[in-house]
Amino acid sequence: MDIKTLRSDQIYQKVAQASPEEKLELFRNEMMAPFMKQWQIQQIPFKAEEPHGFDVITFNSMMHRSPDQITEQISAEIELISSESFWLECEQAVKKSLHLFVEHEINLPVSEYLFTIQLGNPQSRALTINEGYSGFGGIPGFIWGTLLPNEYTIPRMKVALAHECNHNVRYQFIQWDHTVHLGELIVSEGLAENYATFMFGEKFLGPWVTKTNADTLNKRIKPVLREQLQVTGFDQIAPYLYGDEIAKLQNFKPVNMPYSAGYACGYHLIRYYLRKTGKTIFEATITPAAQILDEAKGFWDEETIING
């Protein structure tokens, strides 16, 4: 297994020192180009044909520092993600997260992985609502972490990477296409967060789970989501998965769901499934959502108790 690290701190330092005219293409070629296969899979143009058209830079700048923001003025921010220990911790998290599957006799079809950490855009509400950190790992072979670097987010980056590695493994076995339904995404997020806490402990549970109390989960979220599991189309899925505030930011119709409803529900659903079946998180990660939802039917009628 070949796992490569793209040291974004070194790229940020170069871009910060570059002239305003050079920043854009320097950032595109050094930070975006190594992920070219991902952009092709996501059908995001690498470079817009028209000036100011939609491309990887536009897409990336929604949640991350855009090239024009990467100046000497954010040198303190860059410094916070420049230590060898930070990158070593992140690298070890990715390596361990992937290797544990192999150790549990799950042979991964993908052998080459690339990961990096990007500085988040402080203006992004989608990021700040997540307490300043996030990630993306849905395209096999590519893993991203995002953060507004501080004492809270830096130690959680390794946990976010473990979460994303779980997605990365799952989608080597589970087909993702336009027919994907809400049930799959609830299961997927539940698996990923259970894997992150399996690796690092429940004290690192993400805000997408901890901000939901038992009353909200049992009375407001579960009764609605159980009826919507077959919903398809991202515009339909997103409000249930992320909640109304993020849905509105993405111009989707709100459905009266609280923050990260699908994530919180998924986490407790998978906990229920693992307890009921005795399956390991490794086995569960590559199990189709239909099977998990079928074996965890009792979850919807049983009151979930949240400790702490």
Topology:
Blueprint: E1 2-6, H1 8-17, H2 20-32, H3 36-42, H4 56-60, H5 75-80, H6 84-103, E2 112-119, H7 125-128, E3 133-136, E4 142-147, H8 157-173, H9 182-200, H10 207-210, H11 214-225, H12 234-242, H13 244-249, H14 261-277, H15 281-285, H16 289-295
Parallel strand pairs: 1-2, 2-4
Antiparallel strand pairs: 3-4
Domain DUF2268: 86-293
Organism: Paenibacillus albilobatus
Pfam families: DUF2268 (PF10026)
- Number of DSSP strands? 4
Sketch the major β-sheet: 4 strands, mixed
Summed up, the domain count is 2
Overall spatial form: globular
Low-confidence stretches: none
Order of helices and strands: EHHHHHHEHEEHHHHHHHHH
Number of helices: 16
What is the C-alpha radius of gyration, as a whole number of Å? 19 Å
Into which percentage range does the β-strand content fall?
5-15%
Q: Indicate the mean pLDDT.
A: 97
Helix content: 40-55%
Question: Gap between N and C termini, in Å?
Answer: 39 Å
With strands numbered from the N-terminus, the spatial order across the biggest sheet is 1-2-4-3
Helix/strand structural class: alpha/beta
InterPro entries: DUF2268
Pfam families: DUF2268
Domain DUF2268: 86-293
Organism: Paenibacillus albilobatus
Key features of this structure:
alpha/beta; 2 domains; 308 residues; DUF2268; DUF2268 domain-containing protein; single chain; four-stranded mixed beta sheet; globular
Short description:
This protein is an alpha/beta fold and 308 residues long.
Describe the structure.
- It holds the Pfam family DUF2268.
- Residues 86-293 form the DUF2268 domain.
- This is DUF2268 domain-containing protein.
- This protein is of the alpha/beta class and 308 residues long.
- The protein folds into two domains: 1-173, no CATH class; 179-308, no CATH class.
- 52% of the residues lie in helices and 7% in strands.
- It has 16 helices and four strands.
- The protein has helices at 8-17, 20-32, 36-42, 56-60, 75-80, 84-103, 125-128, 157-173, 182-200, 207-210, 214-225, 234-242, 244-249, 261-277, 281-285, 289-295; strands at residues 2-6, 112-119, 133-136, 142-147.
- It has a four-stranded mixed beta sheet, with helices on one face.
- A hairpin with a 5-residue loop joins strand 3 and strand 4.
- Helix 6 (84-103) packs parallel to helix 8 (157-173), helix 8 packs across helix 9 (182-200) and helix 9 (182-200) packs across helix 14.
- The N and C termini lie far apart (39 Å).
- The mean pLDDT is 97.
